[in-house]
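Hello,

Following up on my earlier ticket. Below are the three sequence lines again, exactly as submitted.
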Amino acid sequence: MSDLKTLSSMPGTVAAFQFDEEGRLEDAVITDDVVIDRDTLDLLGHLCVANMAIGAMQARGWEGMSDVKGFYPVQGFTFVGLDWSAVSRGRQGVVLSNDQADFDAAYKALAG
Amino acid sequence: MSLVNDLMDQPGVEAAGDFAYRGDQSYHHKGDLSAADTRLMVSLCRSNAAAVRMEGDMLAMFSRVCQPGAGGCGFEPTKGWVMHGKSRSVCVISNVYCVIDNERGSLGNVLGMMRNRLADAPDFLN
Amino acid sequence: MLKQLLDLRGVQAVAHFREESGEPWQVHGELSDTDARRLTRLALDFKRMTQGHADQLALFVNQPGWTPANGWIVHGDQRTVCGMSSMVAVVDNAEANLTEVMKALAQESFYT
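Thanks for your patience. The regenerated structure is below:
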């Protein structure tokens, strides 16, 4: 697990958060509470878990049919909004401003 | 579609294409996916586009920071999603997808190019 | 008549929505305007998502009978939401018979 404080210090990051297997918010560091709050992070945790489950179903089905492998197991999911994105990996995620986001760095940092 | 061609020129991009929001149709496609794989990819991209749009709607409806007069909702409308697989990932913005190799590709470059070029895409699901 | 679905045991609200926007055409039962709009918007979104997943399942398992997806049910703790075509109902788990509700929604959508 990565340290939430370290994750939240990446450029463009407004929050780093941790959720349980169902998506419920466990812990968070919020650097800009005007644009994000704990309830929204709780929704985003559920969103990440739901999409990783959907992605796992799709990757599983895909790899059963196709020679193109490498999707399963699904390790993360990124939700790209108009101005903000939520990048998740495992049970942690960060919320980033799209204009300042470094998606590669965020995803790598989430590996712990 | 020039965006599809431009994406294919990015390092690590293995396939790219677009999809219609209704029906399993694709108008442009480049890369090594078979016809059957392309059909599957288009189907799952369309389905996930519907799912993440719903989630954007939910954030807009249920999140306090998304209510009028609050901080403003930067998640909605939803522009896209990335499914990070073990060694490959699928990136979608609006109705364009690409498959990238995690080691060789840069999510930032690919998403940046897609977000820029599709900033004004209408994103109607109908 | 959509309103008659309220006569079924446990049905608390029913709505018929526009396919293109999710805006409600008709709403019956105890729902505020805001909640009715939320419900129908989410019902349209859920319908689209379910249809997409059913299409994929059909491709993955190569088996007829799954598509087109007709409806969906989300089972909550005390309440359940049932969708069929462009109809949606909220029911009380303790009282409602889901088969009865789904059949009634199917019948209603057939004649609408």
